[in-house]
Write a structure and sequence with these properties.
Elements: E1 2-3, E2 17-23, E3 63-64, E4 69-70, E5 85-89, E6 99-104, E7 107-112, E8 116-117, E9 123-124, E10 126-130, E11 134-139, E12 148-153, E13 156-163, E14 165-166, E15 180-185, E16 195-199, E17 202-212, E18 223-231, E19 238-246, H1 249-252, E20 265-271, E21 280-281, E22 285-294, E23 302-312, E24 315-324, E25 327-328, E26 336-343, E27 349-358, E28 367-379, E29 409-419, H2 421-428, H3 433-437, H4 440-469
Amino acid sequence: MGQVTGLAFRNTWRRHFSILVIGISACFSLAVGQTTTAALVQTDILSYDCRRVGAYCQNNKTCIETTGRCDCDRDQNYICENLPTLQLAEADYNESVHGACTNSSGHIECVCDEGYYGKTCDVPRVDVECNESNMTVYINPYGIFEGEIFVINGALKVKDACKFEHVSDIAGAGEDKEGMALVIQHISKDCGNTTLNQEYGNLNYTRDFFLEYVKEVREATDQLIRVTCVFTPSNRTVLKGTVTITDTQSEISHIDVHKDTSVKVTFTVTEKGSTNTDAIRLGQDIDLKFSMETTQNSAYNDFIITSCEVTKEGDETISIDILENECPTTTVHSLITKNLTTAGPVRPGTVTESMSMKAFVFLGESNSTLVFVCIVEFCEKSCIHPPKPCNTSNFRATHSKKRRATDNEQRVSAKITVVDPASQIKATSDLSTQDCLQQPSFIAIMSTLGVLVLLLLTLCIVLILRLLEARPKQSPPDSDARREPVYELKIPRISLTSANPNHHLN
């Protein structure tokens, strides 16, 4: 394998203060709205730092925390940092490729130099196109970028009206561009005006942008980017565009000093009155608690729960909605034992919301690990909470489509394990007879029953004896009453009367 000659390795030292100068030909006079088209001359680059989110080291290499570089095998001419690679046929290769290339039997593989990307590694990661009315700024961070890029106006950041969007969503963006882009007017009501000053008789239009690698969190590896478009005062011809990149904490510490957007909501689901989250019995009360700490510099001072759902751990297709705009859904309305209550906002202090409901399991499940996922929306002052209790006619039963949290929202989650006691009884019935007889619970039950039987037997004996003693005594037998009856035979006397009244027969 041979190395392609005529290529220089990228500078391995990280530049804390790097100046990216884009030379623009002064041959083109610009009309309003016309974009510059000129050859770019780049003298420095957007630095790579593996400590930033998305800029990881490849092939199981380690990120060196002190330098932000990967421990790559330089002696093998191989770059293990997360830099773009491209495949070129030998016929397509030329000396203008900004990369470290190897040639294997006519098959050329290149790793782009730091600060470049594109089909031939010739597109700078930070670029600007200038015209009389606006500037188009292109920023393509390394790896998978999930942070934010926003306009700095004074000491505050302007986000909502001046968001960077994906290049594919920008009309008229260069076909070779990737990453994020923003077309911003020099004079803008929403984004603020550019800083205009004169230098050597030329007009300089300057804007500041902040590259935040983790949303709402400021880190030492974030970058401040200053873009300047330079015009001649006479014919408004663009002389050049310059980009200054600063990635040291001392230089960006003044950014957003008046608003702290790192405020977060803490969410817990526990057995009522305790911190237990395991083996909660079916039907037991559980507490859902949301809390947020605020300071004098907090950008947000209140929050509202816009939605809340419960899913089965490991299977998100099994789920139900429990809250919509802080009101329970019809599905779980009967399970609610305490409606959502709000305390706050106060600054500085704590804003809390809480509710209680019965623990449940999904249909067909004996035990369930329930994952509660809620979206909370932040408010600068006080949120408009729906009146409590909620109107039952407004309860929703339909399952809402899952969505990601937006800029002023946070997605919070917590989980508990609920068990059905009936399933525990069924499980013990499968024990063998011998094992069952040896169970401590069985022995205790049998001992208790034996004692009860003895007590009942003793009680029966006592009752029988008491009954015998309570029977009345019988009198001795009467002799006259027991004599045999004597029957008398009385023969009636017969009297005969004759005709002679004086004659009597005795």
